[in-house]
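Recap from last week: sequence in, structure out.
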Amino acid sequence: MQLSRRHFLRTSGSIGTVVLGLREARAWFNEPGEGTTTPVKSPFLAGNFAPVHEEVTADHLEILGKLPAELRGMFVRNGPNPQFTPTGNYHWFDGDGMLHGVRLEDGQASYRNRYVRTAGWQEEREAGKALYGGLTDPVDVKRLFQGKPLFKNAANTALVWHDGRLLALWEGGPPTEIRVPELETVGLHTYGGKLRHAFTAHPKVDPVTGEMLFFGYSAMSPLVHYSVVNPSGELVRTTPIKMRRPVMMHDFAVTERYSIFMDLPAEFHVGPGNEGQPMLQFERDHGSRFGIVPRHGAAGDVRWFESPACFVFHTVNAYEDGDDVVLLACRTPDYPDMLQLQGARPPAGSNPLAGGTSALYRWRFNLKSGQTREEALDDTPSELPRVDDRRLGRQTRFAYAMDVRMGRMIKYDLLRGTTAFHDYGAGRSGGEPVFVPRSPDAGEEDGWLITYVFDAAEGRSEMVVVSAAEFSSPPVARVKIPARIPYGFHGTWIAADKLAQQA
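Predicted C-alpha coordinates:
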Protein backbone atom coordinates (compact mmCIF):
# COMPACT_ATOMS: atom_id res chain seq x y z
CA MET A 1 0.00 0.00 0.00
CA GLN A 2 1.30 3.44 -0.87
CA LEU A 3 0.34 6.52 1.16
CA SER A 4 0.80 9.72 -0.77
CA ARG A 5 2.40 12.85 0.64
CA ARG A 6 -0.80 14.80 -0.06
CA HIS A 7 -2.93 12.28 1.81
CA PHE A 8 -0.48 12.22 4.71
CA LEU A 9 -0.59 16.00 5.06
CA ARG A 10 -4.39 15.83 5.11
CA THR A 11 -4.58 13.15 7.80
CA SER A 12 -1.22 13.29 9.62
CA GLY A 13 -2.84 14.29 12.91
CA SER A 14 -4.51 10.91 13.10
CA ILE A 15 -1.76 8.58 11.94
CA GLY A 16 0.55 7.51 14.71
CA THR A 17 1.03 4.00 13.40
CA VAL A 18 0.23 2.48 10.03
CA VAL A 19 -1.14 -1.01 10.50
CA LEU A 20 -2.86 -3.31 8.07
CA GLY A 21 -4.89 -5.33 10.53
CA LEU A 22 -2.26 -5.35 13.29
CA ARG A 23 -2.15 -3.60 16.63
CA GLU A 24 0.91 -1.71 17.78
CA ALA A 25 3.77 -4.20 18.04
CA ARG A 26 5.21 -4.85 21.46
CA ALA A 27 8.95 -5.32 22.04
CA TRP A 28 9.34 -9.10 22.16
CA PHE A 29 12.85 -10.48 22.67
CA ASN A 30 13.56 -14.10 21.85
CA GLU A 31 16.43 -16.30 20.86
CA PRO A 32 18.54 -15.01 17.95
CA GLY A 33 17.52 -15.88 14.43
CA GLU A 34 19.77 -17.82 12.13
CA GLY A 35 23.11 -16.10 11.61
CA THR A 36 22.50 -13.49 14.33
CA THR A 37 24.29 -12.90 17.63
CA THR A 38 21.90 -10.44 19.24
CA PRO A 39 18.28 -10.87 20.33
CA VAL A 40 15.58 -10.02 17.86
CA LYS A 41 12.48 -7.96 18.54
CA SER A 42 9.82 -10.11 17.01
CA PRO A 43 8.58 -13.68 17.35
CA PHE A 44 8.48 -13.69 13.56
CA LEU A 45 12.29 -13.56 13.47
CA ALA A 46 12.80 -16.55 15.76
CA GLY A 47 12.79 -20.32 15.30
CA ASN A 48 11.54 -21.35 11.88
CA PHE A 49 10.15 -17.88 11.29
CA ALA A 50 13.76 -16.61 11.12
CA PRO A 51 14.98 -15.77 7.60
CA VAL A 52 17.58 -17.66 5.60
CA HIS A 53 20.02 -15.56 3.64
CA GLU A 54 21.76 -18.00 1.32
CA GLU A 55 20.32 -18.67 -2.12
CA VAL A 56 20.87 -22.39 -2.65
CA THR A 57 20.91 -24.52 -5.79
CA ALA A 58 21.06 -28.25 -5.15
CA ASP A 59 20.60 -31.26 -7.44
CA HIS A 60 20.14 -34.99 -6.79
CA LEU A 61 18.28 -34.55 -3.52
CA GLU A 62 17.83 -37.48 -1.16
CA ILE A 63 14.41 -39.07 -1.56
CA LEU A 64 12.79 -41.33 1.03
CA GLY A 65 10.19 -43.53 -0.64
CA LYS A 66 9.53 -43.22 -4.37
CA LEU A 67 8.32 -40.24 -6.35
CA PRO A 68 5.35 -41.08 -8.61
CA ALA A 69 6.43 -41.18 -12.25
CA GLU A 70 3.54 -38.87 -13.18
CA LEU A 71 4.91 -36.06 -10.98
CA ARG A 72 6.88 -34.01 -13.48
CA GLY A 73 7.07 -30.31 -12.85
CA MET A 74 7.93 -27.85 -10.10
CA PHE A 75 6.43 -27.04 -6.71
CA VAL A 76 7.05 -23.41 -5.76
CA ARG A 77 6.05 -21.70 -2.53
CA ASN A 78 6.26 -18.01 -1.61
CA GLY A 79 6.90 -16.48 1.80
CA PRO A 80 8.44 -13.57 3.72
CA ASN A 81 12.21 -13.52 4.25
CA PRO A 82 13.76 -10.15 5.20
CA GLN A 83 17.03 -9.46 3.42
CA PHE A 84 18.38 -7.27 6.25
CA THR A 85 17.71 -6.90 9.97
CA PRO A 86 14.51 -4.85 10.27
CA THR A 87 14.87 -1.26 11.44
CA GLY A 88 12.08 -1.46 14.02
CA ASN A 89 9.13 -3.69 14.69
CA TYR A 90 8.73 -6.68 12.41
CA HIS A 91 5.69 -8.72 11.52
CA TRP A 92 5.41 -11.87 9.44
CA PHE A 93 3.79 -9.91 6.61
CA ASP A 94 6.77 -7.54 6.24
CA GLY A 95 9.57 -9.71 4.83
CA ASP A 96 10.94 -9.72 1.30
CA GLY A 97 9.46 -12.42 -0.90
CA MET A 98 11.52 -15.58 -1.24
CA LEU A 99 10.57 -18.45 -3.54
CA HIS A 100 11.39 -22.05 -2.66
CA GLY A 101 11.12 -24.49 -5.55
CA VAL A 102 11.55 -28.25 -5.94
CA ARG A 103 11.68 -29.55 -9.51
CA LEU A 104 10.80 -33.18 -10.19
CA GLU A 105 12.05 -34.97 -13.34
CA ASP A 106 12.43 -38.67 -14.06
CA GLY A 107 12.21 -39.62 -10.40
CA GLN A 108 14.89 -37.09 -9.41
CA ALA A 109 14.53 -33.86 -7.45
CA SER A 110 16.41 -30.54 -7.35
CA TYR A 111 15.94 -27.46 -5.17
CA ARG A 112 16.55 -23.75 -5.44
CA ASN A 113 15.47 -20.71 -3.48
CA ARG A 114 15.62 -17.14 -4.75
CA TYR A 115 14.65 -13.72 -3.47
CA VAL A 116 12.04 -11.86 -5.46
CA ARG A 117 14.18 -8.94 -6.54
CA THR A 118 11.62 -6.17 -6.29
CA ALA A 119 12.42 -2.45 -6.55
CA GLY A 120 12.39 -2.22 -2.74
CA TRP A 121 14.70 -5.22 -2.43
CA GLN A 122 17.13 -3.63 -4.91
CA GLU A 123 17.00 -0.28 -3.10
CA GLU A 124 17.90 -1.90 0.21
CA ARG A 125 20.52 -4.10 -1.43
CA GLU A 126 22.33 -1.03 -2.74
CA ALA A 127 22.10 0.67 0.66
CA GLY A 128 23.29 -2.45 2.49
CA LYS A 129 20.56 -2.14 5.12
CA ALA A 130 16.81 -2.08 5.68
CA LEU A 131 15.20 1.19 4.58
CA TYR A 132 11.50 0.40 4.93
CA GLY A 133 9.67 0.11 8.20
CA GLY A 134 7.16 -2.58 9.01
CA LEU A 135 3.39 -2.51 8.95
CA THR A 136 3.33 -1.82 12.70
CA ASP A 137 5.97 0.94 12.71
CA PRO A 138 5.25 4.67 12.97
CA VAL A 139 4.99 6.52 9.69
CA ASP A 140 8.40 7.37 8.21
CA VAL A 141 7.80 11.09 7.61
CA LYS A 142 11.16 11.48 5.85
CA ARG A 143 10.21 8.96 3.17
CA LEU A 144 6.85 10.64 2.71
CA PHE A 145 8.38 14.07 2.13
CA GLN A 146 10.85 12.50 -0.29
CA GLY A 147 7.90 11.20 -2.29
CA LYS A 148 8.85 7.58 -1.61
CA PRO A 149 6.40 4.78 -0.77
CA LEU A 150 6.11 3.79 2.88
CA PHE A 151 6.00 0.09 2.08
CA LYS A 152 7.78 -1.91 -0.54
CA ASN A 153 5.87 -4.26 -2.78
CA ALA A 154 7.45 -7.33 -1.21
CA ALA A 155 5.83 -9.86 -3.61
CA ASN A 156 5.86 -12.26 -0.66
CA THR A 157 2.40 -13.80 -0.41
CA ALA A 158 1.25 -16.08 -3.22
CA LEU A 159 1.80 -17.24 -6.80
CA VAL A 160 -0.38 -17.65 -9.86
CA TRP A 161 0.30 -19.12 -13.30
CA HIS A 162 -1.59 -17.52 -16.18
CA ASP A 163 -0.91 -16.85 -19.85
CA GLY A 164 2.44 -18.65 -19.68
CA ARG A 165 3.67 -16.49 -16.79
CA LEU A 166 4.36 -17.10 -13.12
CA LEU A 167 3.41 -14.08 -11.03
CA ALA A 168 4.51 -13.42 -7.43
CA LEU A 169 1.80 -11.51 -5.58
CA TRP A 170 1.43 -8.92 -2.80
CA GLU A 171 -2.00 -7.42 -2.39
CA GLY A 172 -0.86 -3.80 -2.06
CA GLY A 173 0.56 -3.47 -5.56
CA PRO A 174 1.01 -5.01 -9.00
CA PRO A 175 2.32 -8.57 -9.49
CA THR A 176 5.95 -9.42 -10.19
CA GLU A 177 6.76 -11.76 -13.08
CA ILE A 178 9.09 -14.69 -12.36
CA ARG A 179 10.99 -16.79 -14.91
CA VAL A 180 10.91 -20.53 -14.28
CA PRO A 181 12.51 -22.88 -13.51
CA GLU A 182 15.31 -20.46 -12.58
CA LEU A 183 13.01 -18.43 -10.27
CA GLU A 184 14.58 -15.25 -11.64
CA THR A 185 12.76 -11.94 -11.28
CA VAL A 186 11.64 -10.37 -14.55
CA GLY A 187 9.91 -7.29 -13.10
CA LEU A 188 6.48 -5.79 -12.50
CA HIS A 189 3.68 -6.96 -14.77
CA THR A 190 1.04 -4.26 -15.30
CA TYR A 191 -0.78 -5.60 -18.38
CA GLY A 192 0.63 -2.98 -20.68
CA GLY A 193 -0.10 -0.21 -18.19
CA LYS A 194 -3.81 -1.08 -17.92
CA LEU A 195 -3.47 -2.21 -14.29
CA ARG A 196 -4.04 0.94 -12.22
CA HIS A 197 -5.06 -0.56 -8.88
CA ALA A 198 -3.75 -3.13 -6.42
CA PHE A 199 -3.78 -6.83 -7.28
CA THR A 200 -5.07 -9.38 -4.77
CA ALA A 201 -2.86 -12.23 -3.59
CA HIS A 202 -5.70 -14.60 -4.54
CA PRO A 203 -6.78 -14.23 -8.15
CA LYS A 204 -8.96 -17.00 -9.60
CA VAL A 205 -8.19 -18.74 -12.89
CA ASP A 206 -11.27 -20.39 -14.37
CA PRO A 207 -10.22 -23.93 -15.42
CA VAL A 208 -12.79 -23.97 -18.25
CA THR A 209 -12.72 -20.48 -19.78
CA GLY A 210 -9.08 -19.69 -18.98
CA GLU A 211 -10.04 -16.24 -17.65
CA MET A 212 -8.31 -14.80 -14.60
CA LEU A 213 -10.43 -12.76 -12.20
CA PHE A 214 -8.95 -10.51 -9.52
CA PHE A 215 -9.57 -7.38 -7.47
CA GLY A 216 -7.74 -4.68 -5.55
CA TYR A 217 -8.73 -2.81 -2.40
CA SER A 218 -7.41 0.33 -0.73
CA ALA A 219 -7.18 1.46 2.90
CA MET A 220 -8.09 4.96 1.72
CA SER A 221 -11.18 4.25 -0.38
CA PRO A 222 -14.39 2.21 -0.09
CA LEU A 223 -14.02 1.16 -3.73
CA VAL A 224 -12.88 -2.34 -4.66
CA HIS A 225 -11.78 -2.65 -8.29
CA TYR A 226 -12.77 -5.96 -9.91
CA SER A 227 -10.92 -6.95 -13.08
CA VAL A 228 -11.00 -9.67 -15.72
CA VAL A 229 -8.00 -10.87 -17.75
CA ASN A 230 -8.81 -12.95 -20.84
CA PRO A 231 -7.02 -16.26 -21.60
CA SER A 232 -4.53 -14.38 -23.80
CA GLY A 233 -3.37 -12.26 -20.88
CA GLU A 234 -5.17 -9.03 -21.81
CA LEU A 235 -6.86 -7.01 -19.06
CA VAL A 236 -10.27 -6.47 -20.65
CA ARG A 237 -12.53 -5.19 -17.89
CA THR A 238 -12.37 -3.31 -14.57
CA THR A 239 -15.48 -2.61 -12.49
CA PRO A 240 -15.52 -0.43 -9.33
CA ILE A 241 -17.63 -1.95 -6.54
CA LYS A 242 -18.51 0.23 -3.57
CA MET A 243 -18.21 -1.06 -0.02
CA ARG A 244 -19.78 0.63 3.00
CA ARG A 245 -16.32 1.65 4.23
CA PRO A 246 -12.71 0.85 3.32
CA VAL A 247 -12.20 -2.78 4.35
CA MET A 248 -9.47 -5.38 4.30
CA MET A 249 -10.47 -8.00 1.72
CA HIS A 250 -7.74 -10.60 1.37
CA ASP A 251 -9.64 -13.08 -0.79
CA PHE A 252 -12.84 -13.58 -2.78
CA ALA A 253 -14.53 -16.45 -4.62
CA VAL A 254 -16.00 -17.27 -8.02
CA THR A 255 -18.56 -19.65 -9.49
CA GLU A 256 -19.22 -20.41 -13.15
CA ARG A 257 -21.31 -17.24 -13.51
CA TYR A 258 -20.70 -15.09 -10.44
CA SER A 259 -18.01 -13.48 -8.29
CA ILE A 260 -18.42 -13.10 -4.52
CA PHE A 261 -16.95 -10.16 -2.59
CA MET A 262 -16.75 -10.01 1.21
CA ASP A 263 -17.64 -6.70 2.86
CA LEU A 264 -16.55 -7.76 6.36
CA PRO A 265 -16.18 -5.40 9.34
CA ALA A 266 -12.36 -5.33 9.38
CA GLU A 267 -12.41 -1.64 8.56
CA PHE A 268 -9.70 0.94 7.93
CA HIS A 269 -9.89 4.17 9.93
CA VAL A 270 -7.65 6.93 8.60
CA GLY A 271 -8.57 10.50 9.45
CA PRO A 272 -9.39 12.88 12.28
CA GLY A 273 -10.60 11.20 15.46
CA ASN A 274 -8.43 8.12 15.09
CA GLU A 275 -5.40 9.45 16.97
CA GLY A 276 -3.46 6.66 18.64
CA GLN A 277 -5.82 3.95 17.41
CA PRO A 278 -5.09 1.04 15.08
CA MET A 279 -5.62 1.88 11.43
CA LEU A 280 -7.66 -1.32 11.04
CA GLN A 281 -10.39 -2.11 13.55
CA PHE A 282 -12.95 -4.88 13.79
CA GLU A 283 -16.39 -3.24 13.98
CA ARG A 284 -18.57 -6.15 15.10
CA ASP A 285 -21.76 -4.07 15.24
CA HIS A 286 -21.58 -3.48 11.47
CA GLY A 287 -22.09 -7.15 10.65
CA SER A 288 -20.95 -8.79 7.42
CA ARG A 289 -22.15 -8.49 3.82
CA PHE A 290 -21.42 -10.67 0.82
CA GLY A 291 -21.78 -9.10 -2.62
CA ILE A 292 -22.63 -11.33 -5.59
CA VAL A 293 -22.08 -9.91 -9.06
CA PRO A 294 -22.33 -11.58 -12.48
CA ARG A 295 -18.85 -12.35 -13.76
CA HIS A 296 -19.07 -9.70 -16.47
CA GLY A 297 -21.66 -7.56 -14.69
CA ALA A 298 -21.64 -3.86 -13.87
CA ALA A 299 -21.30 -2.21 -10.46
CA GLY A 300 -25.07 -1.79 -10.30
CA ASP A 301 -25.61 -5.53 -10.68
CA VAL A 302 -24.21 -6.39 -7.23
CA ARG A 303 -26.67 -8.07 -4.83
CA TRP A 304 -25.80 -7.86 -1.13
CA PHE A 305 -26.51 -10.60 1.41
CA GLU A 306 -26.14 -9.97 5.15
CA SER A 307 -24.83 -12.29 7.87
CA PRO A 308 -23.38 -12.02 11.41
CA ALA A 309 -20.02 -10.31 11.84
CA CYS A 310 -17.00 -12.44 10.98
CA PHE A 311 -13.67 -12.36 9.20
CA VAL A 312 -12.39 -14.57 6.38
CA PHE A 313 -8.81 -14.67 5.20
CA HIS A 314 -9.22 -17.51 2.71
CA THR A 315 -12.11 -18.94 0.77
CA VAL A 316 -12.13 -22.64 -0.12
CA ASN A 317 -14.40 -22.63 -3.17
CA ALA A 318 -17.82 -21.52 -4.42
CA TYR A 319 -20.42 -22.97 -6.77
CA GLU A 320 -24.04 -22.72 -7.90
CA ASP A 321 -26.71 -25.09 -6.63
CA GLY A 322 -30.13 -24.29 -8.08
CA ASP A 323 -31.13 -20.84 -6.84
CA ASP A 324 -28.30 -20.85 -4.29
CA VAL A 325 -24.79 -19.49 -4.63
CA VAL A 326 -22.73 -21.55 -2.16
CA LEU A 327 -19.52 -20.30 -0.51
CA LEU A 328 -17.05 -22.37 1.50
CA ALA A 329 -14.43 -20.56 3.56
CA CYS A 330 -12.38 -20.63 6.75
CA ARG A 331 -14.23 -18.25 9.09
CA THR A 332 -13.21 -16.56 12.33
CA PRO A 333 -15.65 -14.67 14.61
CA ASP A 334 -13.35 -11.64 14.49
CA TYR A 335 -9.91 -10.62 13.25
CA PRO A 336 -7.42 -13.35 14.37
CA ASP A 337 -5.58 -12.47 17.59
CA MET A 338 -2.41 -14.21 16.43
CA LEU A 339 -1.92 -11.49 13.83
CA GLN A 340 -2.04 -8.77 16.49
CA LEU A 341 1.14 -9.93 18.26
CA GLN A 342 -0.68 -11.00 21.41
CA GLY A 343 -0.29 -14.15 23.46
CA ALA A 344 2.66 -16.43 24.09
CA ARG A 345 5.57 -16.77 21.72
CA PRO A 346 5.06 -19.67 19.29
CA PRO A 347 7.10 -22.64 20.60
CA ALA A 348 9.91 -24.08 18.52
CA GLY A 349 8.60 -26.26 15.73
CA SER A 350 5.01 -25.12 16.11
CA ASN A 351 2.86 -23.97 13.26
CA PRO A 352 2.79 -20.18 12.80
CA LEU A 353 -1.01 -20.07 12.90
CA ALA A 354 -1.35 -22.13 16.08
CA GLY A 355 -3.99 -20.76 18.40
CA GLY A 356 -6.27 -19.53 15.63
CA THR A 357 -10.04 -19.93 15.73
CA SER A 358 -10.64 -20.24 11.99
CA ALA A 359 -12.87 -23.15 10.96
CA LEU A 360 -14.66 -24.41 7.85
CA TYR A 361 -18.05 -22.76 7.20
CA ARG A 362 -20.64 -22.80 4.43
CA TRP A 363 -22.90 -19.98 3.30
CA ARG A 364 -25.91 -20.32 1.00
CA PHE A 365 -27.13 -17.15 -0.67
CA ASN A 366 -30.54 -17.64 -2.29
CA LEU A 367 -30.84 -15.48 -5.39
CA LYS A 368 -34.67 -15.68 -5.37
CA SER A 369 -35.46 -14.99 -1.71
CA GLY A 370 -32.40 -12.90 -0.82
CA GLN A 371 -31.90 -15.05 2.29
CA THR A 372 -28.56 -16.17 3.75
CA ARG A 373 -27.90 -19.44 5.55
CA GLU A 374 -24.61 -19.85 7.43
CA GLU A 375 -23.41 -23.05 9.09
CA ALA A 376 -20.25 -24.52 10.56
CA LEU A 377 -19.07 -27.70 8.81
CA ASP A 378 -16.22 -28.58 11.15
CA ASP A 379 -14.71 -27.36 14.43
CA THR A 380 -11.05 -28.11 13.68
CA PRO A 381 -9.07 -24.85 13.61
CA SER A 382 -8.04 -24.67 9.98
CA GLU A 383 -6.45 -22.33 7.47
CA LEU A 384 -4.68 -22.16 4.09
CA PRO A 385 -7.40 -24.23 2.38
CA ARG A 386 -7.14 -25.63 -1.15
CA VAL A 387 -9.19 -27.67 -3.61
CA ASP A 388 -8.38 -29.35 -6.88
CA ASP A 389 -7.84 -26.29 -9.11
CA ARG A 390 -9.63 -28.10 -11.95
CA ARG A 391 -12.82 -27.79 -9.86
CA LEU A 392 -12.51 -24.10 -9.00
CA GLY A 393 -15.95 -22.47 -9.20
CA ARG A 394 -17.67 -25.84 -9.44
CA GLN A 395 -18.97 -28.14 -6.73
CA THR A 396 -16.16 -30.27 -5.35
CA ARG A 397 -16.27 -33.26 -3.06
CA PHE A 398 -12.89 -32.83 -1.41
CA ALA A 399 -11.06 -29.91 0.16
CA TYR A 400 -7.77 -29.73 2.04
CA ALA A 401 -6.38 -27.40 4.69
CA MET A 402 -3.84 -27.06 7.46
CA ASP A 403 -4.78 -27.89 11.05
CA VAL A 404 -3.51 -24.73 12.74
CA ARG A 405 -3.61 -26.36 16.15
CA MET A 406 -1.47 -29.40 15.35
CA GLY A 407 0.38 -28.48 12.15
CA ARG A 408 -1.06 -31.53 10.36
CA MET A 409 -2.99 -31.75 7.08
CA ILE A 410 -6.79 -31.97 6.89
CA LYS A 411 -8.94 -33.66 4.25
CA TYR A 412 -12.63 -32.76 4.10
CA ASP A 413 -15.11 -35.06 2.38
CA LEU A 414 -17.84 -32.52 1.73
CA LEU A 415 -20.25 -35.15 0.42
CA ARG A 416 -20.07 -37.42 3.46
CA GLY A 417 -19.36 -34.65 5.97
CA THR A 418 -16.23 -36.36 7.33
CA THR A 419 -12.76 -35.12 8.25
CA ALA A 420 -9.49 -37.03 8.02
CA PHE A 421 -5.96 -36.08 9.08
CA HIS A 422 -2.42 -36.66 7.90
CA ASP A 423 0.03 -36.37 10.80
CA TYR A 424 3.63 -35.49 9.93
CA GLY A 425 4.99 -36.80 13.24
CA ALA A 426 6.22 -35.33 16.49
CA GLY A 427 7.94 -31.95 16.22
CA ARG A 428 7.06 -31.65 12.53
CA SER A 429 4.74 -29.04 11.05
CA GLY A 430 3.50 -28.51 7.49
CA GLY A 431 1.96 -25.69 5.50
CA GLU A 432 -0.59 -25.17 2.75
CA PRO A 433 -1.38 -28.45 0.91
CA VAL A 434 -1.39 -28.18 -2.90
CA PHE A 435 -3.26 -30.84 -4.87
CA VAL A 436 -1.64 -32.27 -8.01
CA PRO A 437 -3.80 -34.60 -10.17
CA ARG A 438 -2.24 -37.75 -11.61
CA SER A 439 -3.25 -36.59 -15.11
CA PRO A 440 -5.38 -33.79 -16.58
CA ASP A 441 -8.46 -36.03 -16.68
CA ALA A 442 -7.84 -37.94 -13.42
CA GLY A 443 -10.55 -38.18 -10.79
CA GLU A 444 -10.84 -35.63 -8.00
CA GLU A 445 -9.17 -37.95 -5.48
CA ASP A 446 -6.63 -39.39 -7.94
CA GLY A 447 -3.50 -37.41 -7.16
CA TRP A 448 -1.24 -36.12 -4.42
CA LEU A 449 -0.94 -33.34 -1.86
CA ILE A 450 2.42 -31.54 -1.72
CA THR A 451 3.73 -29.25 1.01
CA TYR A 452 6.89 -28.30 2.85
CA VAL A 453 7.39 -29.71 6.37
CA PHE A 454 9.73 -28.35 9.03
CA ASP A 455 11.40 -30.82 11.41
CA ALA A 456 12.29 -29.01 14.63
CA ALA A 457 14.67 -31.73 15.84
CA GLU A 458 16.71 -31.67 12.63
CA GLY A 459 16.32 -27.94 12.06
CA ARG A 460 15.74 -28.72 8.39
CA SER A 461 12.88 -29.02 5.93
CA GLU A 462 11.58 -31.47 3.39
CA MET A 463 8.90 -31.68 0.72
CA VAL A 464 6.34 -34.40 1.35
CA VAL A 465 4.10 -36.09 -1.20
CA VAL A 466 0.89 -37.55 0.27
CA SER A 467 -1.61 -39.72 -1.60
CA ALA A 468 -5.03 -38.04 -1.68
CA ALA A 469 -6.76 -41.44 -1.77
CA GLU A 470 -4.67 -42.97 1.03
CA PHE A 471 -4.54 -39.73 2.95
CA SER A 472 -3.75 -40.94 6.48
CA SER A 473 -0.98 -43.28 5.32
CA PRO A 474 2.70 -42.27 5.43
CA PRO A 475 3.87 -40.06 2.55
CA VAL A 476 4.63 -41.87 -0.68
CA ALA A 477 7.80 -39.77 -0.89
CA ARG A 478 9.82 -37.32 1.21
CA VAL A 479 12.33 -35.07 -0.52
CA LYS A 480 15.05 -33.95 1.88
CA ILE A 481 15.93 -30.27 1.43
CA PRO A 482 19.59 -29.37 2.18
CA ALA A 483 18.43 -26.14 3.85
CA ARG A 484 15.78 -24.78 6.17
CA ILE A 485 12.63 -23.37 4.58
CA PRO A 486 11.03 -20.78 6.89
CA TYR A 487 7.29 -20.82 7.44
CA GLY A 488 5.56 -19.14 4.53
CA PHE A 489 2.28 -18.63 2.78
CA HIS A 490 1.02 -19.96 -0.56
CA GLY A 491 2.39 -22.20 -3.29
CA THR A 492 1.56 -23.67 -6.67
CA TRP A 493 2.39 -26.66 -8.86
CA ILE A 494 3.71 -25.92 -12.37
CA ALA A 495 3.46 -28.96 -14.63
CA ALA A 496 6.36 -29.87 -16.92
CA ASP A 497 4.52 -28.76 -20.06
CA LYS A 498 4.09 -25.28 -18.58
CA LEU A 499 7.76 -25.10 -17.62
CA ALA A 500 8.58 -25.94 -21.23
CA GLN A 501 6.76 -22.77 -22.34
CA GLN A 502 9.59 -20.69 -20.88
CA ALA A 503 12.42 -22.97 -21.98
